[in-house]
Amino acid sequence: MPSPTQKALAKVPGPLRPFLVQHRSLVKFLVVGGSCFLLTVVINYGLKFTVCQSKPVVALTIATALATVVSYLWNKAWSFRSEGSHKEAIPFILVSAIAVGVNDLPLLASRYLCNLREPHVSHFTQEVADFMSGMILGTLVAMAFRYWAMKKFVFTTPRAGGDSAERHTEPPARVG
């Protein structure tokens, strides 16, 4: 009986299948990241237009931190198929803290180094600059850092018993 992953792969156009199989953890990481990006946008703007009106970096930091918790749970369970050990908690917290800072840097630079904020620019220009620097550029740079760091330092032990499309298998050795 085919696994859910095998059923899903059967629906993908033939030329794309080998790429998806070869880079499945990256593809899953990007799906989780895209979902968490949307969550970050919602939380960020919810905070930015209510309780953090004059503190856009605080709003982005809180939104990123909350989405990071969701990202951890999804990446642990699905993208990297990590076993349920607690040994990844400390490296995850360290990587995540650095990544939140990396995510904030473009917004800090835009707002306070380039002065892309009111009264130096219009409100519309400020909001476009905030979105492009904090949400787009910051997220892209932090995402690249997270993928590399999570794979290298956090989720290093694959989960046993994943379905056959999830495992890298070697052909059996010949005897004789």
Description of the structure:
There is one protein chain. This protein is an all-alpha fold. The chain has one domain (21-154). It has 6 helices and no strands. It has helices at 4-10, 17-22, 24-48, 56-79, 89-113, 123-154. α3 packs antiparallel against α4, α4 packs antiparallel against α5 (89-113) and α5 (89-113) runs antiparallel to α6. The longest helix has 32 residues, at 123-154. The radius of gyration is 20 Å and the shape is elongated. The two termini are 32 Å apart. The model is unreliable at 162-176 (pLDDT under 50). Belongs to the GtrA family. Pfam families: GtrA_DPMS_TM (PF04138). This is GtrA/DPMS transmembrane domain-containing protein.
**Order of SSEs:** HHHHHH
Supply the number of structural domains.
1
Q: What does the main sheet amount to? A: none
Instruction: Determine Rg (CA atoms, Å).
Output: 20 Å
Write down the overall geometry: elongated
Strand portion, in percent?
Answer: under 5%
State the total count of DSSP E strands: 0
Number of helices: 6
Distance between the termini: 32 Å
What's the structural blueprint in terms of helices and strands?
Layout: H1 4-10, H2 17-22, H3 24-48, H4 56-79, H5 89-113, H6 123-154
Helix pairs in contact: 3-4, 3-6, 4-5, 5-6
